[in-house]
Design a protein that fits this description.
three-stranded antiparallel β-sheet, 13 helices, mainly alpha
């Protein structure tokens, strides 16, 4: 309804109507219908009665209306708000003699339902029919407050408030989008950094595995030669030790080696000097030491090569970390700038909202002060005036 009222000129232009006449100052027309406390009607009856009252005033053909049914008082009543601007043509409904039309309609309603609750209205309408000028009594305070609240200023204020709220929501949505975008940017940066680290470490591990295999393959010929040499030594030892003197002579030649490998154990030395089994055990011990030495050499060479690979990998990781920290600083600067711009937008939005609502807040404060002053001066008379207008259906008054 507010949109229709505020866009009257555009509706007229779209419908081909002339944009003549004075600008409509009060597009909202409001009144109320009240039943006597002893009357009890349902919502369907209240609605049909309100629609019939609109028809009596010529406001039933396409005009926008809001009908509010209330039962918070001893008497049932409805409030009716009508947009005078037609939503299709943009033309404003005329309210000429609407008060008299409603008065006659209310009198007819009471007669139709078999009981007159407002005799004064019947008398006033009779006098008007005879050509007398009869004014309507003072409007009840409750009806006045309702019509003032439903007036053009209030509707405009609510429309502007809704518009400001929508602008706030749009700016909030921008802020939420920025926040989500920033979170995704950090997640993406961390994910790329973690993926790059993994690639470097995986590549380093691949290089170390390949280097170890290369070194092992390079020592394959030495392992073969060692195996062949040790096999030949075992055959030679077995052939040379057919007799006791031969074993003794060979044992003496192995004495130093036996003592080193058996840590000076006299029994083992004696056994080695006189026993073929001892000589074979001593030879096996030496062969095992040779294999350990070659294994240790391969491990040392492999470790040295892998240490070099680790150094290169650490250098790559350090460079990657430096790049990551630089990107973090750059991203933080960009996001801080965007946060600052959003704060400036909110600052401007707050000032714009305050300026847009200032006239209505000032008017509301003046009305509140005026109402408080009037309430203190009227005292109990205020309640008397209100109760006097709650008799019979009509515009909240009997006249």
């Amino acid at each position: 309804m507010a949109h229709t009222a505020l866009n009257q000129a555009a509706l007229k232009a779209a419908a081909g109507e002339k944009a003549t006449g004075r600008k409509l100052a009060k597009p909202v027309y409001a009144y109320s219908l009240a039943w006597h406390p002893e009357q009890r009607v349902d919502k369907d009856h209240m609605l049909s009665t309100a629609l019939d009252s609109l028809k009596a005033q010529g406001l039933d053909e396409g005009y926008q209306a809001i009908i509010l049914a209330h039962s918070d008082e001893p008497h049932q009543h409805v409030h009716v708000l009508v947009n005078r601007v037609h939503p299709e043509t943009g033309k404003a409904a005329t309210l000429s003699n609407n008060t008299l039309k409603l008065s006659k309609w209310a009198e007819a309603y009471e007669k139709q339902h078999g009981k007159i609750y407002c005799g004064k209205r019947v008398e006033n309408n009779r006098r008007r029919g005879q050509g007398e000028f009869v004014t309507e009594p003072r409007k009840p305070r409750a009806a006045y407050e309702f019509e003032r609240a439903a007036g053009n200023d209030s509707i405009s204020a609510e429309f502007i408030k809704a518009n400001e709220t929508q602008k706030d929501a749009q700016l909030y949505e921008i802020g939420r989008t920025i926040k989500e975008s920033h979170a995704r940017q950090w997640e993406d940066l961390k994910r790329v950094y973690a993926g790059s680290r993994k690639k470097i470490t995986d590549h380093g591990q691949t290089l170390k595995t390949a280097k170890a295999a290369q070194i092992k393959d390079g020592y394959r010929e030495r392992w073969t030669m060692l195996a062949q040499t040790q096999r030949a030594e075992r055959r030679d030892l077995w052939r040379r030790e057919d007799g006791f003197l031969s074993r003794l002579f060979h044992g003496l030649s192995l004495l130093k080696e036996i003592r080193e490998n058996h840590e000076g154990n006299a029994f083992m030395i004696a056994l080695a000097l006189i026993s073929r089994r001892g000589h074979m055990a001593a030879l096996a011990t030496r062969h095992e030491a040779e294999r350990r030495d070659l294994t240790r050499e391969i491990r040392d060479v492999t470790n040295r090569e892998q240490i070099q690979i680790d150094k290169g990998m650490r250098g790559d990781l350090d460079r990657l970390r430096g790049q990551f920290l630089d990107q973090c600083a750059s991203l933080r600067t960009t996001q801080d700038k965007e946060h600052g711009e959003q704060r400036q937008r909110w600052k401007a939005r707050n000032a714009e909202r305050k300026e847009a609502l200032a006239p209505y807040r000032s008017r509301r404060q003046r009305d509140r002060t005026r109402s408080q002053d009037a309430g203190r001066s009227r005292g109990r008379d205020r309640h008397t005036v209100q109760s006097a207008g709650r008799r019979g259906p009509g515009m909240g008054s009997c006249g």
